[in-house]
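Running co-folding for zinc ion.
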Amino acid sequence: MKMKFCLSCNKELVGRSDKKFCDTECRSTYHNTNRPLYEISIQKINSALRKNRSLLAHFCPSGKGTVKKEVLVQLGYRVDLFTHIYPFKTGTYFFCYEYGYLPIKEKGIDKMLIIQKQDYMDKLTYSPWSIKIEK
Ligand SMILES: [Zn+2]
């Protein structure tokens, strides 16, 4: 019988002939160290977006909510990451999946007015070429 070795730690494998790793730990070590950098960065951004979404959902239990930006940022909210935007006449909603927020100011304090996405917001109402971001 042909000897086989763990692709991660090179220990000899015993047991099933189709085994490639000693155990799940070796399997995940192997997959993590062989993942291309872009995959790692995609995963980081995906998980940050997921976290953003969870935080928005948490502070928007009944379809609407207002929270200080500072509170969400301290909990790990990344305002630089969003899945899409919905600009309208007086502002822009920044969405993470089906939750979004409108940046507002109340008495000089930055707050986020959180909402759940409405069906009418699925339509593209702007041209990306016409958006101007102030610096
Ligand atoms: Zn191993």
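Result summary
The radius of gyration is 23 Å.
Helices lie at 24-33, 37-58, 69-74.
Job closed.
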